[in-house]
Amino acid sequence: MLTFRRIFLFLALNFMICITISVLLSLLGVNKYLYSHNISLFNLFIIFFIYGMTGSVISLFLSKKMAKWMMGLRMITPYDVSQE
């Protein structure tokens, strides 16, 4: 259940960021420029979503490894169960 909540929050946050960017582009009048060059705001929204998801996943996978590397940490594993 916790995994589904995390995935839902991850997707919802990325979706809300994309909506915020789309609204800002509309308020700034960028959509007029896009429509004059035959670029749909919806297509741009899809590209934002894909890039956002890809960047988030890459960052998520690298963050733990990079933190260990930057701090010079080593994982200590016991030789047998009695050492725990």
Description:
By secondary structure, this protein is mainly alpha-helical. The chain has one domain. Helices cover 76% and strands 0% of the residues. It has 3 helices and no strands. The protein has helices spanning 2-27, 30-36, 41-71.
Briefly, what is this?
The chain is mostly helical. It is built from 3 helices and no strands.
What's the structural blueprint in terms of helices and strands?
Blueprint: H1 2-27, H2 30-36, H3 41-71
Helix pairs in contact: 1-3
| Arithmetic mean of pLDDT | 83
Compute the gyration radius: what is it?
A: 21 Å
Using DSSP, what is the number of strands?
0
State the helical fraction.
over 70%
**Biggest sheet, in brief?**
none
Instruction: Output the helix-strand order.
Output: HHH
- How far the N terminus sits from the C terminus, by CA atoms, comes to 30 Å
- Derived from helix and strand composition plus strand pairing, the structural class reads mainly alpha
Shape: elongated
- What are the segments in which pLDDT stays under 50 over at least 5 consecutive residues? none
Strand content: under 5%
Tally of DSSP helical segments = 3
Number of domains: 1
Q: What are the defining features of this structure?
A:
84 residues, 3 helices, elongated, mainly alpha, single chain, 76% helix
